[in-house]
UniProtKB/TrEMBL annotation:
Record domain BON: where: 3-73, 78-147, 152-219
The protein's name in its UniProt record: Phospholipid-binding domain protein, putative
Species this protein is from: Syntrophotalea carbinolica (strain DSM 2380 / NBRC 103641 / GraBd1) (Pelobacter carbinolicus)
A Pfam family recorded for this sequence: BON
């Protein structure tokens, strides 16, 4: 076994050890060469997508990991319709100056966002609101923040509260959100399993979140 294959096996083992990735059930392909890991294929959840990249980056010998994973979807939507839904969501959101955002989509449900915004919360909202559109399988957020802003746990927490409040599936008034080094903990009470899952997904959709501990009670 050469060194590239050895490290590829280490990556595979790291991903297999986290049950949220569901490696045996996924259609995830791992390749590795000369310090670079590439993750491609389809994975069941946004949590699995985010975790797979982070765990791959932690394997000794991996200098960078490319995430080309698509999230599985229940129903497809035409790429023009996806663009229209995202554009409409941006227009309705007063925090987003949508005329400075370019939206590209393809037939595979991939979304690329380019342009500029004035704050970190706008940057994050653009990505999360794109993920909310049915049929979206991957979002590449290339929007720049002008002028640049420093990110930190308090900023991320504030942004998450804004995002949770905008999700029609979530009523976060009974939630407590804690953030430490990008790791999010949700406490409190959700009205249903659907709301609990939606709140966790919103966190995973948000750039800057490295892990989510969902301690929300249901009922």
């Amino acid at each position: 076994m050469n060194d590239d294959e050895r490290i590829r096996k280490l990556i595979e083992g790291a991903l297999a050890n986290d049950i949220r990735i569901k490696l045996p059930e996924s259609h995830l392909r791992i390749s590795y060469h000369d310090g670079t890991a590439t993750l491609a294929g389809t994975i069941d959840t946004i949590a699995g997508k985010r975790l797979a990249k982070r765990l791959a980056e932690q394997v000794p010998g991996v200098r960078q990991a490319y995430d080309l994973l698509d999230v599985a979807i229940a129903h497809r939507m035409g790429h023009k319709e996806i663009t229209q839904h995202i554009r409409h969501a941006f227009i309705q959101e007063r925090n987003i100056d949508e005329e400075h955002i370019d939206i590209e989509t393809d037939i595979d449900g991939h979304v690329t966002l380019r342009g500029r915004v004035h704050s970190m919360v706008q940057h994050r909202l653009c990505e999360v609101m794109s993920w909310w559109v049915p049929g979206v399988r991957n979002v590449l957020n290339m929007i720049t923040i002008v002028p640049p802003e420093e990110d930190n746990d308090e900023e991320l927490k504030d942004n998450l509260l804004v995002i949770l409040e905008k999700d029609p599936l979530v009523d976060p008034k009974h939630f407590q959100v804690q953030v430490s080094d990008g790791m999010v903990t949700l406490r409190g009470r959700a009205n249903s399993d659907i709301e609990k899952a939606a709140a966790e997904n919103d966190c995973w959709f948000t750039p800057g979140v490295v892990d989510v501990n969902n301690l929300l009670a249901v009922g």
